[in-house]
């Protein structure tokens, strides 16, 4: 990140979401509650899947890592946001800012590819159930996971290298509550057109490639479900992918709104609302979506609680 040494501003200042002290207090309490639910929900989901042998399947293998990603990319953003809301100091160093941006892109991009892997898993389960254990082998699942992380790290590294070469000699005030690409690009006194294009290609290819996989999987799933004669069979098939489809819809709608557009169309109010949703709210919603709508997860939680109570009684 040698390019950052040539800047004439000492660091950045995160303006946050509001200047009102009363609103900041309300938001800090709200975000703290959401973050606690996020941590408890995602850690709980990981523990339930790990502790219950009946959930040691490809679908729940991916769901474990989805919870891991949600937990991490929420933790990259929310604690710093809470600090800014509760204290008068809103400054952040170049290193901290670019580190936050780097890991946020890693976890968000990895989630895109993980969601597409989950869609492929549901496609095989519904469209080719007899060969499901053979196709969705441990080797393939591990390969899909490694590919998701590998591409995410590559994507984030390219973004970071391009951003670090920019010069920042104008204002150092970031009109956002975390270090994201669009508001940082707006501060540069360099020509950002080439960097914008590279970032757009990276973000666009990540979103488009994963969406193509998800769309193709769900079109095949829909085609297969429509061929099922019984209503009960159709409901059962729909129920196996309903949670994933809901999670995908919420995640991609806000992500596309925030990122697949040029810097000139950046809008402080609209983009901050979308950013709060996908950085703070969605990581909380995912474990709720996948647990409350999933009988297997609820049954597993009951079994674990019963086993725990039984162990205590024996003591």
TrEMBL record:
G-protein coupled receptors family 1 profile domain span: 41-290
GO cellular component assignments: plasma membrane
Q: Which Gene3D superfamilies match?
A: Rhodopsin 7-helix transmembrane proteins (1.20.1070.10)
Which cellular compartments is it found in? Cell membrane
Main localization, broad class:
membrane
Q: Give the transmembrane region(s).
A: 25-48, 98-120, 132-154, 197-225, 237-260, 272-290
Pfam annotation, one family: 7tm_4
Question: How is this protein situated with respect to the membrane?
Answer: Multi-pass membrane protein
What protein does this entry describe? Olfactory receptor
Q: Which organism is it from?
A: Fukomys damarensis
